[in-house]
Design a protein that fits this description.
The structure is a single chain. The protein is about 50% helix and about 15% strand. It folds into two domains: about 100 residues; about 110 residues, Rossmann fold (3-Layer(aba) Sandwich). The strands form two sheets. The chain has a four-stranded parallel β-sheet, with helices on both faces. Strands 1-2 form a two-stranded parallel sheet. The longest helix is centred in the last third of the chain and has 17 residues. It has twelve helices and six strands.
Length: about 230
């Protein structure tokens, strides 16, 4: 499942995700009729619109039955697993997994062989990942790469401030939370900011560009893909 942000802004993350899954021995099926999962209107309180979008998502995914649904976004996985039962009583998608969760817990991959160019990395854990029960699955894979030094920073569990519609309706507060996050990361000496959520990356990267901060950003799937031999 590609996700809207991946389709609109992070196409390279989708490509990296497919490469990673195929390298792990999976056959990847992609349904081109998929659109949004319905989370934006769901979070904004417009459940009528969310149900309309979610129905299309369910119809697009229905033909694939018991095939695991994998997405490089914890927020979309959370919507299918936690949001859909709220929109449609009795409807759930327990076979939907965030990418790192799937690699570690379903495929049993605890480390990712390969090497990337030397870099100091700060890892941001997205809030929706915690909602799914994720812990250090994504970091574990990134940390295992040769060339990566994963650094600690203050208030690592703090939200990035994005929050979907929250960033649009409370822009000043949202930016302030994000800037505090970036200040802590910069103080750690990190050169890269890596996460498993494209909403967080979009928000933080916007602040990085606005203030011309010396940080590069990437989704963790891109790091894993980079380490795969050509």
């Amino acid at each position: 499942m590609l996700t809207c942000l991946c389709d609109a802004f992070f196409g390279e993350v989708g490509i990296a995700t497919v490469r990673v899954l195929e390298h792990a021995g999976c056959e990847v099926v992609f349904d081109e009729t998929q659109t949004c999962c319905g989370q934006p209107p769901f979070n904004a309180g417009d459940w009528k619109a969310a149900r309309k979008i979610a129905r299309h998502c369910i119809e697009s995914l229905h033909p694939y039955g018991e095939i695991p649904l994998v997405t490089p976004s914890g927020s979309c996985a959370a919507m299918l697993r936690e949001g859909y039962p709220m929109l449609f009583e009795g409807t759930e998608h327990p076979n939907c997994f965030e990418l790192g969760e799937f690699l570690v817990h379903k495929l049993g991959i605890q480390s990712w062989p390969g090497e990337v160019s030397p870099r100091k990395v700060a890892f941001h854990r997205a809030c929706h990942g915690r909602g799914l029960g994720l812990k250090d699955e994504q970091e574990r894979l990134v940390r295992s790469l040769q060339g990566v030094e994963l650094v600690q920073f203050a208030q690592q569990e703090q939200c990035c401030g994005f929050g979907g519609a929250f960033a649009a309706t409370h822009g000043k507060l949202s930016s302030g939370i994000g800037q505090e996050k970036l200040d802590n990361i910069l103080a750690s000496g990190a050169e890269w900011l890596v996460s498993g959520d494209m909403g967080c990356l979009m928000h933080l990267n916007g602040l990085i560009q606005k203030h011309n901060l010396p940080l590069k950003t990437a989704h963790f799937a891109q790091f894993l893909s980079e380490a795969i031999p050509a």
